[in-house]
Amino acid sequence: MATDRRKMIIEASTKSFSLFGYKATTMDQVAKLANVGKGTIYTFFKNKEELFEEIISTMVKEMIAEAESVIQPELTFTENVHRALYRLLEFRSQHQLMIKLIQEEREMGTLAVSEMLQHIEDEIIAYLKKKIETAIDKGAIPAADTEITSFLLLKMYIALVSDWEKNHQPLSSEQIAELMEIFLLKGLSQW
């Protein structure tokens, strides 16, 4: 029974954060949406911040699962990186909570939201780092600083998928994969 109430609270708070954002969500709203007393929430979570962290942690696990779902062992490292990053950015652009958090950070600069978005980025970079380390160990790519490479992969991918489209014709999935391979994985000397 306690597990059901905890689950209801998490679902209600996810809905509230998705609809109203972090700043505008109150524990009273969450209690109302979960159909529980406000005190019940505090039996599971000490405050709104802890509840928010729980939701973000679950969302990060979902994002990683999405990325893992598109990786195919028979494909090259480059192809799998592209597929995983594409799926992660697709998740970001379609997940209601992520959309609301990005909007809130842009419009209001809420510190807690900025910190959580940074946490999400750090988790994605850590995920990529593990994949790069595995690829280096297998000899699929040359040795390099895995953290910097992960950071650059993510930032370059975001730039090609999102930033480029602001003033240019969108790139196809194939073009993005080719550019990623040329600039990061093969290096300009191979171009």
TrEMBL record:
Q: Which UniProt keywords apply?
A: DNA-binding, Repressor
Q: What is an example of a Pfam family matching this protein? A: TetR_C_24
InterPro entries found in the cross-reference section:
DNA-bd_HTH_TetR-type_CS, Homeodomain-like_sf, HTH-type_Tx_Regulator, HTH_TetR, KstR2_TetR_C, Tet_transcr_reg_TetR-rel_C_sf
- Annotated HTH tetR-type domain ranges read 3-63
Positions of the DNA-binding region: 26-45
Show the PANTHER family listed in the entry.
ACREF/ENVCD OPERON REPRESSOR-RELATED, ACREF_ENVCD OPERON REPRESSOR-RELATED
What name appears for this protein in its UniProt entry?
AcrR family transcriptional regulator
